[in-house]
Each structure stands twice: as structure tokens, then as C-alpha cells.
Amino acid sequence: MDLKLDHYTEGDTEIVVVEGEIDVYTAPRLRELLIDLVNKGNFHLVVNMEKVEFLDSTGLGVLVGGLKRVRAHDGTLDLVCTQERILKIFRITGLTKVFGIHGTVQEAIDKRSSK
After folding, report:
1. Cβ pair 63, 51 in contact under 8 A
2. Where is the STAS domain positioned along the sequence (predicted)?
3. In whole angstroms, how far apart are CA 38 and each of 11, 47, 53, 96?
4. Which residues 6+ apart lie within 8 Å of 107 measured at CB?
């Protein structure tokens, strides 16, 4: 399975839609997209991972790198994920304490807006 990437703007938040597998082969494409969005001044990102079927350590590294990049601009990077097998990876690695993980894109946007 390949990786499909798309993104759109909702208010001041850029939504990144990821579908497929984020692994050592495909993660560089996600990394490039996140870097490009930040370089264009998008510092509030929501990565929708609802259609992600596989995530490895390289993919986790890309997400953490994206988080560091937006935080350097006082930004945010939240995730949308409800799939147990993907959530388990975030729990095992302790990254549930680092990322805001939400059930829907709207929930992620609303949570940031209420801060």
C-alpha cells in the first residue's frame, strides 16, 4: 500500500489527510509536506490519521519532527486517530502525553480554539 497525502485549510488550521502506510519508504513524503506547510507559515496543523493502516518508528519520528517544527513558532500539531492499533503505538511510546489525539478534525480544532 502506498501513501496518499492531501491537505486543506480550515480557519487558521491546516488539515493534513494521510491515508495508507507511514513507514521508512513513505515517511519522507509526509516529512516534506509538513516542512513545506510550516515554511509557508502554517503553524497550526491537524494530521488526520483515520485512514492510516500502518505506522512505524520512522513515521513517529516524522510526526515528532513536525511537532518540534511548529512549536518553534508557538504552533500546534494535533492528531486525529481512533484506530486502536495506531493508538496503541502512541501509548506504548508515551507520545499520548506529547500529542493532542482527537476523535475528529472538528474536535481537534475546537480544542485548540478553546485554549
Report:
1. no
2. 3-112
3. 16, 13, 25, 23
4. 80
